[in-house]
Write a structure and sequence with these properties.
The structure is a single chain. The chain contains 14 helices and twelve strands. It has 378 residues and is of the alpha/beta class. The chain folds into two domains: 279 residues, Rossmann fold; 90 residues, Helicase, Ruva Protein, domain 3 (Orthogonal Bundle), CATH 1.10.8.60. Helix 3 packs parallel to helix 4, helix 12 crosses helix 13 and helix 12 packs parallel to helix 14. It is globular.
């Protein structure tokens, strides 16, 4: 890299850091609500504070000239909670949409230990580099979200990739060891392209200021905790609490996730879990929150879609209640709301979309269940 290019990257980086918004944690919290994020107040506060600290730390380092030893170290967070509770969605809204930081969300099950089949973990930073317009300085202050993090647990790695079965990294411990290095403050040789070719150019990226946020559902974690505490019951004497391990939408307690030994029993290297400054438990979404998400995010967009097709869509309140009930029963969280609603309107949409004359579709519930009726203009 020539001097002119280095100077240009440094100028871009300085302007980028200067432009980063400094908003209070409470303002970040409120902004998330304005963008449609519902529920998870405790987790939302924790991530809002983490985001504020990250921005202020960057500005103190690179604008105010404070010495690294005099400020708090970077924060890596582990978000644990049931599927569909809003973990990755929170990260996406917070860092990519509100704070405008280079942010990547990667499925860690596609990565493998260096030298084996699968993507090299260093390529996680390649994705971050691309999100930073290939400026390694801007990439070095970005956010990496390690999605499906729980799938790396020893003996539970379900990674599927080309050549699966030919790799020795069958437990996920190899990837854990590779991630352990990334979470440290190290300089990493990062390939400029997502390729396995040995001729790809590399650039050095420091992870000293890259914040890592891992997200996972951690199914079966409750059972591990019960086994370690000796509270597991078998047979007819099992209590309601002991059946929690069968629930998808189980709620994690703070004392459970603060105990590194529980994660070690689950299949994680204790030194990797210790690299996370904070473990944030997310709750299973309740009926009121699911109903708010359904109204604000799903129904509004679907009504707009029908309107764009010159159709009026009307959904009875009883139908919306039924959709929330189905989501709670299936324990799919917010992720299942769209699928449930689409299932009820897809036949009407099939005949309605593309017509130029317009009309009205009503989704209602009767003794035979939910059905959609339509009246097309001629």
């Amino acid at each position: 890299m020539n001097l002119a290019q280095q100077t240009n990257e440094l100028q871009q980086f300085t302007h980028f850091v200067q432009a980063l918004p400094v908003v209070t944690p409470n303002e970040v919290f409120q902004a998330l609500g304005c963008l449609g994020y519902r529920g998870q107040d405790a987790a939302r506060r924790a991530l809002s504070l983490m985001a504020y600290r990250h921005i202020r730390r960057i500005k103190r380092l690179y604008l105010e000239g404070m010495h690294r030893a005099d400020i708090m170290p970077k924060g890596n967070y582990l978000c644990i909670g049931p599927t569909g509770c809003g973990k990755t969605h929170l990260v996406e809204l917070l860092f990519r949409d509100i704070l405008k930081l280079p942010t990547v969300i990667v499925d860690v099950t596609t990565y493998s230990e260096t030298g084996y089949v699968g993507q090299d973990t260093n390529q996680i930073l390649t994705r971050l580099l691309h999100a930073a317009d290939d400026n390694p300085l801007i990439a070095s202050i970005g956010i990496v979200c390690l999605d499906e993090f729980d799938k790396l647990a020893s003996g539970q790695n379900n990674a599927m990739f080309a050549g699966a079965g030919t790799t020795k990294d069958v437990t996920g411990l190899g990837v854990q060891r590779e991630l352990l290095k990334l979470l440290e403050s190290v300089d990493v040789s990062v390939p400029l392209e997502l390729s396995h070719s040995s001729t790809v150019s590399h650039v050095m990226v420091s992870t000293a200021d890259v914040a890592f946020i891992a997200c996972g559902a951690f199914s079966g974690f409750q059972k591990v905790v019960q086994q370690r505490s000796g509270n597991e019951h078998v047979g007819f004497g099992r209590s309601a609490e002991s059946r929690q391990d069968h629930k998808i939408a189980a709620t994690f307690q703070q004392d459970q996730v603060d105990n590194v030994a529980n994660f070690q029993a689950y299949g994680f290297l204790p030194e990797l879990i210790a690299r996370f400054t904070r473990v944030v438990p997310f709750e299973a979404l309740d009926r009121a929150t699911l109903r708010a998400i359904l109204n604000d995010s799903v129904v509004t967009k679907m009504v707009r879609e029908f309107h764009d097709e010159s159709m009026e869509l009307v959904i009875d309140e009883e139908v919306l209640d039924q959709i929330v009930t189905e989501s709670l029963k299936r324990e799919t969280g917010a992720r299942g709301l769209t699928a449930n609603l689409i299932r009820h309107v897809e036949d009407a949409a099939f005949f309605a979309f593309g017509r130029q004359s317009g009309g009205r579709v009503r989704v209602q519930q009767d003794s035979n269940g939910v059905k959609a009726t339509y009246d097309f203009l001629t």
